[in-house]
Amino acid sequence: QFLLGESDVGQNRAEASRRALAELNPGVAVAAHTGELSEAFLAPFQVVVLTESPLEEQLRVGDFCHARGIRFIVADAKGLAGQLFCDFGERFVVDDPAEGDPVCAAVQDISQGNPGVVTCVGAEGSRGHLFCDGDLVTFSGVEGMTELNGREPVPVRVLDAFRLEIGDTSSFSPYRSGGLVSQPKMHAVSDEELRRGRSLHAAFQALHAFRGEQGRLPRPRAPADAERVLELARGLGTPRGPLDEDVVRGFASVSAGDLCPVAAVVGALAAQEALK
User: Fold this and answer.
1) What is 6-91+261-275's CATH number?
2) Against a cut of 0.85, is the pTM above it?
3) In 52-174, which ranges are E strands?
4) Are 73 and 85 in contact (CB under 8 A)?
5) Percent of the chain topping pLDDT 90
6) How many Cα atoms occupy the beta-carbon half-sphere of 91 within 13 Å?
7) What is the CATH superfamily name and number for domain 104-182?
8) Relative orientation angle of helices 191-214 and 245-254, to the nearest 10 degrees
């Protein structure tokens, strides 16, 4: 916990954290509440973020916030895994140009070589491109070096704000004019990634059940505890596919640990969602 020191041992975490947190920005009022998260206390807020919260409390507070149009976020970290849930209401609209408009640039020249170099400008003429190393791009409307049109996406290496390397073009026809280089939307998610995500979601739910049953988190590297978490996860049902049992066991084996880097990543993501 970044805000606490040895001198804070034995004190209320909210009170001890508030003192250090308030120093980060004198323009923000920070208050500590050490009582129950009652509906009367929650009602005035625009955003509520829960951390280290039992599932029953998440459901209760989430239902209350949803019914009253209060934005609701759950953030948690257990061992090497993190969890983030957001409910921004019935009328939440995503209006992000990056989500709708692909990154693209007009082509000025493409050299024949290994690697070939694409010289381009952005849509506003002098801005250059907005690509990053490793981005996958496609070409369209290229005259002369038509072999590039309609090809599968190729990775780029950024040379500067106007030039990109795209691999071997030495055998292609000479470039004449025109063309657009763009970054296609990549929607594909592998079955393995989906299975891992579903398994971690089930593992977090099973962890809540284990804590309710045992009154504690699984002991580190305790096979019996890990197997019980897996058994509870199986009992949840997996209508969208089988569990990755190794993921659930591994999660259970380290779930009692608190790691600052994991907490920092999850906390940063939760903070971005709160700002939205």
Assistant:
1) 3.40.50.720
2) no
3) 71-78, 81-87, 104-110, 117-121, 136-140, 154-155, 157-158, 163-165
4) yes
5) 72
6) 4
7) Ubiquitin-activating enzyme E1, FCCH domain (2.40.30.180)
8) 50
